[in-house]
Amino acid sequence: MTPLTRREMLQRCAALGLLCGGGGIRGCVAEAFARAESGRVPTPRNEMGPFYRRKAPVQSVLRAPGDPGLPLTVVGSVWDVRGEFRPDATVEVWQANHEGRYDLEGYRYRGLLQTDPRGGYRFESVMPGHYPDRVAQHIHYLVRAPGCRPLITQLYFATDPAFDGDPDRNYGKDPLVLSRELIRPVLLTGDPGQPVAQVTFELCLERL
Questions:
Q1: What is the tens place of the pLDDT at every residue in 90-116?
Q2: Which of 99, 93, 62 is nearest to 201 (CA)?
Q3: Cβ(30)–Cβ(84) under 8 Å?
């Protein structure tokens, strides 16, 4: 097949009604051009779950000294579909502790992060545990930025025993894991006797 030019692609999208939005056809075309140039697609969405609490504190260290469980550091960046960093984004995270229990009275393992000038974020926690209503370990995300659609999603871990060592084939064992793209590799660093798990989770937002 002969590759389409960007103009041909946009014309076909417009003819099929695939270009839409509040900025009229000119704004839609600009958005489509931006997506074509950046090659970025929005991060898959996932449900919020029942344990969200409003007014999470602004903090990037969610674990306290002496907390049980595997220490975990998560880093990433927030972009939009135009490939632009979002230094104006907020990233809210919440999770269970290493035993699979959520703090429903306070704000343990909950935090609100502001992205840095290059859209980056980072937080320190522990690897969340399993609990009866969920198969896979996960961390919840709520990401907001001006001019973008809020993103509700979840981070999963390729090392999770629930995936039997093969997330590509077994991610469906948790019926709430709707996309393989949300499962990220885990790198173990530090002293062998005191390892620290590191995960990178990039986030791409849809524009309004």
A1: 999 999 999 999 999 999 999 999 999
A2: 93
A3: no
